[in-house]
Predict the structure.
Amino acid sequence: MTLKEAQARHAQLVRDIRRYDHAYYVEARPLIPDLEYDRLYRELVELERQFPELVTPDSPTQRVAEKPMEGFRPVRHAVPMMSLDNTYSQAELRDFVHRVERLLPGERLEWVVEPKVDGVAVSLRYENGRFTVGATRGDGTTGDDITANLKTIRSVPLHLRCDPTDCPEVLEVRGEVYMPRAGFEKLNAERAAAGEELFANPRNPAAGSLKQLDPRIVARRPLDIVLYGMGVLRPAAGHRPPQTQWEWLEYLRKLGFKTPECAWFCRSEEELIAAVNELDAVRKNFPYETDGAVIKLNAFEQQRRVGATAKAPRWAIAYKYAPEQAQTKLKAITVQVGRTGALTPVAELEPVFLAGSTISRATLHNEDYIREKDIRIGDTVLIEKAGEVIPAVVGVVASRRTGAEKIFQFPRTCPECGSKAVKSLAADEAEAAVWRCPNPDCPAQIRGRIEHWCSRGAMDIEGAGEVLVAQLVGRGLVRDVADLYRLKVGEVAALERMGEKSARNFIEAIQASKAREAWRVLYGLGILHVGAGVAKSLCRHFPSLDDIFEATPEQLMQAEDIGEVIAQSIVRWRNDPDNRRLLDRLRKIGLNFQSDLYRPAAAAGPLAGKTFVLTGTLASMTREQATAKIEALGGKVSSSVSKKTDYVVVGADPGSKLDKARQLGVKTLTEQEFLKLCGP
Ligand code: IVH
């Protein structure tokens, strides 16, 4: 065969195989028998072996790279990948519609309702029809380059279905990678047979697969993709781009992408509510998990005018369906010891699939809860789960009782260390129901405190998973959080499932945490009632952690949102000599005790105690500058208008906040009035 003949045959084979792939993987409508397909595919492989110059990156043979990657290159998204605000009731959904209506007074609005696919968000970039880069969402601005992994997904077109004349020059399209329910069940069945731990839901293995460095492994995972979102479009010269979300979906389908199973076009609020209900009825039959509906304003031009907040568009919203329930058998009740010593009863369940995950454990809250609901071992129970929330047992199916069920005796000793359990004497009702292990040296509590210190919301020390922390505590290497900073690479590397490299990374992550803000240190200490918000508030009011720990309860209560219960809890904590020693050690280690949130002038300024809301564009300063000015003068800036707002500063083109201010009778200020109030 001459090169010329080979070229012609190659082009023909590529064209045919692309067409068959699209029919099979995107439309689920095979055009030819598998055997026939395999024959053509083998012919293409053979041809490319003889004429390697014919191989292009978008040939159907190039889906699975032969070599693992070294790491993921960062990719900056041309347009940020935003997230969505959530609503949980039809009333909130109507509020959203009314908000948009107010932003576009008198205009006709059309809506598109789509399923909210519970997968992993990705962005695909095509240049002149060829798939060039695929990326994860990352932080919304920059993601990881996972092109090689995405190519293994057969429904990702390596080449768009378009002629050279109408192929968009650049197209960035957004969607979700998911593991189909069927593939997920099969994967878990295989893992169960192999005695391996099961995946909790299809999203976890999908996300895990995309993070694999070896595309050959990814290729074996049953992944699929659905595309819905607009990133960037530079159409071919002379071509009119889609103007609406509805046209966009149509356009994506024509280019060969898989789009959501169903979408609804709505002209009114009522149609929209009906669509959301219809979707709820049919979504069980989709091949992927859905956790809600996404409602989008149809016209791109209107979307642009409505705009976005820092995080999410104002023209779209997610509507989350009510939590799903399932019935299963309560096999046993175990008791878990938390970092504060709280003994939490946990239901050990016959595994059951619910809202996207297989559930085998659920919380039973506390002893009183079990008694009030009369939950017995052996009962058929009702469990509920909403999104990321921990599943909970919500009741008993009384009709399934046999009489053989056993009443659970809540232990009076800590199941971890054997100490006698105590109940708090606090008046707080939630608190009064909790049994606690009073032993601060209880290994379960130590583990919990270390995990909390390292958690993302606190000191953000990567690598400190449950298994590693258990080993560190179990071997006596770490007894409190200060011990972490003394760990040596050799000690960590010697632990199970650790190597030199991961040990080194872990030690580096620990050292890096010395630079974290003081409020994270305070929150990381895990003092009862001191959450991240309380820690920040304290750090705004006091210059350093030492000042906080030297303060009287009355002084502590001067800080915003700090009441008696929190103040007492802090004082109780610092009165313990062990905790004082811990603070001394942490200070010596070099952790950050100076608060960078501290605002000294705050209490005295001319705007002291006043809450401001900004709307519209100011002429003399940016919104950030105005916020800084208000805060420097002792005031506070809030993002929404309420009865507690003192002033709404109104710039050019004000938004709905002005309406709200008028509605509530909140005083509004022009820019000049505002500047005058600030003083010279
Ligand atoms: S639109 C700027 N449509 O849900 C608009 N998102 O919770 C952004 N998602 O980040 C998204 N299905 O990853 C949109 N039909 C759909 C979706 C969808 C799933 C994901 C998406 C987004 C997240 C927000």
